Amino acid sequence: MSKISMIHHINIQISDRERTREWYERVLGAQFLDRGPKLNQRQLQFRIGTGEIHTSDTPEVIEVPRVHFAIEVEDWDKMLSHLDSVGVDYSRTAGGSFGPRTADDDSQQGRREDTGEHYTYINDPDGNLIELVYHPLGLQSSEGAEVGLVTDADNVRWTQQSGFVEDAYQVEPVKSS
Ligand SMILES: [Fe+2]
Questions:
Q1: What distance in Å separates the CA atoms of residue 122 and residue 108, rounded to the nearest whole number?
Q2: pLDDT tens over the chain, length 177 residues
Q3: Which fold has domain 9-171?
Q4: What sign does the dihedral 79-82-84-90 (CA atoms) show?
Q5: Which of 28, 74, 114, 155 is the most exposed place for a label (fewest CB within 10 A)?
Q6: 111/172 Cα distance (integer angstroms)
Q7: Which residues are near ligand 1, the ion (C-beta closer than 5 Å)?
Q8: Whole-model pTM?
Q9: How far is the CA of 85 from the centre of ligand 1 (A)?
Q10: How many CB atoms lie within 10 A of CB 33?
């Protein structure tokens, strides 16, 4: 078996691509991944941080209580102010799904004892539950040495074949409807 290096993407159910794209760009600073017209048609893909989110279109999203994914936030206070400014509610209990509280918790955010992790929950327009986390103690290597997450200001991305998207648009021009 090969060692697994990281989780590459998660796939979420969505009912409206435009709405999803707009929301993730505005609320979480997601970046649309342009794969060319043919692949873009297959699914909406975008990048947040170093990971990717891919989507499955469905007319009716099946909500499963407590199922969620979590994303690491670089500046916690800045993120919460941003959520306030764009009018996205966040809560420690995600509508009562998660409890109980510790001494440092409030109704909007909590702290975990072991890592000092800050956490809160938001929902995307389809109800997908997203946990936001921040780790003040940072990351460490397997030997316990402090390591940084990424050094690229805009985060790393997976290398795409050179010219792939440009060629894809030339072979199959976007239809204007
Ligand atoms: Fe979680």
A1: 10
A2: 999 999 999 999 999 999 999 999 999 999 999 999 999 999 999 999 999 999 999 999 998 999 999 999 999 999 999 999 999 999 999 988 888 888 888 999 999 988 999 999 999 999 999 999 999 999 999 999 998 877 788 888 999 999 999 999 997 666 666
A3: 2,3-Dihydroxybiphenyl 1,2-Dioxygenase; domain 1 (3.10.180)
A4: negative
A5: 114
A6: 50
A7: 70, 131
A8: 0.91
A9: 24
A10: 19
